[in-house]
Amino acid sequence: MFTGIVEELGEVVAVERQGDSARFRLRGPLVTEDAGHGDSIAVNGVCLTVVTTADGEFTADVMAETLDRSSLGALDAGARVNLERPMKLGGRLGGHLVQGHVDGTGTITERTPGEHWETVRISLPARLSRYVVDKGSITVDGVSLTVVEAGGDWFTVSLIPTTLEMTTLGVKKTGDPVNLEVDVLAKYTERLLGDRITAEGRA
Q1: How confident is the model over 73-127, as pLDDT tens digits?
Q2: pLDDT of residue 92
Q3: Which of left, alpha, beta for 48 (phi over 0: left; psi -120 to 50: alpha)?
Q4: What pLDDT is attached to residue 202?
Q5: Burial of 183 per CB tally in 10 Å (0-12, 13-18, 19+)
Q6: Distance CA 69, CA 53 (A)
Q7: Could you tell me if 181 and 69 are in contact, meaning their C-beta atoms sit under 8 angstroms apart?
Q8: For burial by CB atoms within 10 Å, which of 17, 59, 69, 202 has the most?
Q9: Which residues pair with 39 in a beta bridge?
Q10: 197 confidence band (pLDDT: 50, 70, 90)
Q11: Burial status of residue 30 (CB atoms within 10 A of its CB: 0-12, 13-18, 19 or more)
């Protein structure tokens, strides 16, 4: 489980394509200092399993499902990525509960600079819109953000200077894809209420 508070701006060192999957080698001295084989690290919001670590770098295997359903498939050597280790039990929940399971991808459609921040508009698949509400939580490329305004197939967020400086969202351009994870509590609530309504209908 993650919190959406990016610890380090890392870099893709190499991508080894292996048929319908790939092995990524990424640089992240901070997140690898206590990582070992089998540990998890979120890369742009995608929970990956560490295969090896050495000299501030780690490797992770990415299967076809992840390459198809996230923006990781478009990454090449030199790309910057947001990195986060799992939250320790008893640690502070600085953002919100993030699983590292991407629900879909969106596209940055507009960036509007403010005096000390930026408002960014992002498209999202229509099937996810019911989970996104004004002032609710959403994860964009692994960054926990608060929704400013939610539309039918888009939403906006405001990025403070720290987010612009310390994450990939500071350099992403209009047209760039981003990974989206909606609030898991919204999905569970929908499922539970849906089952209850179905049961009541049969009663």
Answers
A1: 999 999 999 999 998 877 777 778 888 999 999 999 999 998 889 999 999 999 9
A2: 72
A3: beta
A4: 47
A5: buried
A6: 26
A7: no
A8: 59
A9: none
A10: low
A11: middle
Tokens coding 89: 């039990």
Predicted confidence (pLDDT) at residue 41 exceeds the cutoff of 60: yes
Rounded distance, CA 194 to CA 196, Å?
Answer: 5
What is the rounded CA–CA span in Å between residue 19 and residue 6?
Answer: 31
Domains along the chain with CATH numbers = 8-84 (2.40.30.20), 104-186 (2.40.30.20)
Selection from 94, 92, 82, 90 nearest residue 41 by Cα: 82
Q: In the structure encoding, which two tokens stand for residue 141, read together?
A: 């490329």
Query: Is the pTM for the entire model greater than 0.85?
Result: yes
Interval 7-24 mean pLDDT: 95
Q: 56-89 b/e with 16+ CB inside 10 Å = b?
A: ebbbbebeeebbebbbbbebeeebbbbbbbbbee
